Amino acid sequence: MPLTSANIIETSKRNDSTSRLDLAKTQAEFSKGLVFRSRRIRLEVEIQNALRKLFGYEPVSLPPNWVIVPNFIRAFDESELSLTAMAALTDKYSDPKEIYLDFMRHQDDQVRRQAHVNYLQESTSLVKRIQTRRLLFANYGKDLRQRAYSVNLFLEHQNLIIKSLVGLGHTFYEMEELGSDVFINFFENIPTLNVEVKLAVGREAQTGILKTNDLGDFENFSTATPYSTIIVAEKNFVALAKQTKLDEVYNIKLYTKLEDFFISR
Length: 265
Fold this sequence. Notes:
Elements: H1 5-12, H2 17-31, E1 34-36, H3 39-54, E2 68-70, H4 83-92, H5 96-106, H6 109-136, H7 142-156, H8 158-168, H9 172-176, H10 182-188, H11 191-204, H12 212-224, E3 230-232, H13 235-243, H14 246-249, E4 253-255, H15 258-264
Helix pairs in contact: 1-12, 2-5, 3-8, 7-11, 11-12, 11-13
């Protein structure tokens, strides 16, 4: 059961050190110290292959389960965790489970608390932006909301997309000449962003206030859905994933209770 960056952040947020370490031990045992690669690394590969498909090239050949790697550090981008500071842990332990447990056991508490204060502020700001967009498109249909969200994602990731275009010997203008619908189809071929678009549009159409905790669910689903066989999650997001047929697109089984998985077997 590989960990996502959201799993690790939620565990680190626990202020009770005993509870935090107990949860980390359970996670380490079930994950075997494996994590999903960081969002940035996944997107670099996914965007490159989506562009290759768009321009008629063969996709880059990837090994099975390329997205799952040892060492919890690799679930984060270099800007989020100091890889230099963490390198000492890699030198100290050969077992990735022990690296994770050492980090959870010996975090500087003041630094940990401040990091999560900063994370909460960023999450609150993001939720406000989502709520604003939600109100703006409240009276429009799903297709228009999906297009608008896709345009927003393109703007957020344009530097990475342009970098990949240049690497293939193409330009944004060549991409633009393929027509406006190309952007919708393009994101459907980027698994991480496709899941995000489908879930975000579905969630924004629902009633109820979006909470900062929902962002962790978004991150978990956009990370795990394209690369898992089974996901166990809370009811609302499982329902959203089924409504948007993500389970069919990525051939995964969705459960709301772990025991349901064992019963099904």
